[in-house]
Design goal:
By secondary structure, this protein is mostly helical. It contains six helices and no strands.
Amino acid sequence: MNRITRLTTIGVVSGFVLASFLMIIHILTGNQAYILLFNVDYIPVLKDIWSQPGIGIVFHFVFCVISVVALFYVLCLWHLEKRWFMYVLVYVFGSGGLFFLTALSNLAPDAGDFGSWLYWTSAHLVYGIIVGLLIKNWID
């Protein structure tokens, strides 16, 4: 299996775990941080087709794959692509900041909801660990 196929698989598997983690949080606590994974109503082109079934899910998985592939090759520039902790740092800090895009949306959760931010960021911590370890152990 070639590198791009493996990176794509890592993006899909990690994206599934991320969505599952946030869905379990929702089931256990009622917190709606998972909505952000599938929300595209703040993106001009996508918000027009938001009503189509599955657009949010497709967006989530496409974004997961693109972020894994892009981050891998960016880290290659500094020979850091096998350092799993770099994935954790980027995804935790990046997602912690991106959470506040919710302010551009009418959907829950509110940008000031600390609990949602904490669940969102924790889920991306898990995502980063999975991505980093899979890359470290599965990519040549």
